[in-house]
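Troubleshooting log. The previous structure file for this entry was overwritten by mistake, so regenerating from the original sequence record. Sequence copied from the archived sheet and checked twice against the printout by T.R.
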Amino acid sequence: MLTRGGSYPGCMTPRPRPNVVQYVGYVMGRPLPAEMKEWVRNDLVGPGAAVRYVARFVVPVALVLLLFLLIPGPIWIPLAMMALLIIPLIYFAIALMNIYRRHRLAQHGLDPALVGERARARNESVRADYERRHGRG
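Regenerated output below.
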């Protein structure tokens, strides 16, 4: 399926997107076809990639944890049990985010170094500004 939109808002180049079955497989860890590399790149390192990554880990688990609300008793007990599971999940998901995204990029034949691309560009501009002001150090 083709939709409008490239890597940047307003871009009018057609870009293939995964269908529902491909997307569910992608979320579960399966690679997408080679023609969807640009979509994968944008998904893993584009704007909002970190939020999408954490949401993919937390939302399914949170839906299952809602079953704790069926436990009789004061509401704080199931909420506390949910928090005891959700907080470490979020912590470890964030801690392992770059490792997982590098793996997914390599799995799709993309450069794993793309994960730090934005930080490198920001550091290079800061260094260039420093060198312009103070000379090479």
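Residues 2-134 form one domain. Archived copy saved in two places this time.
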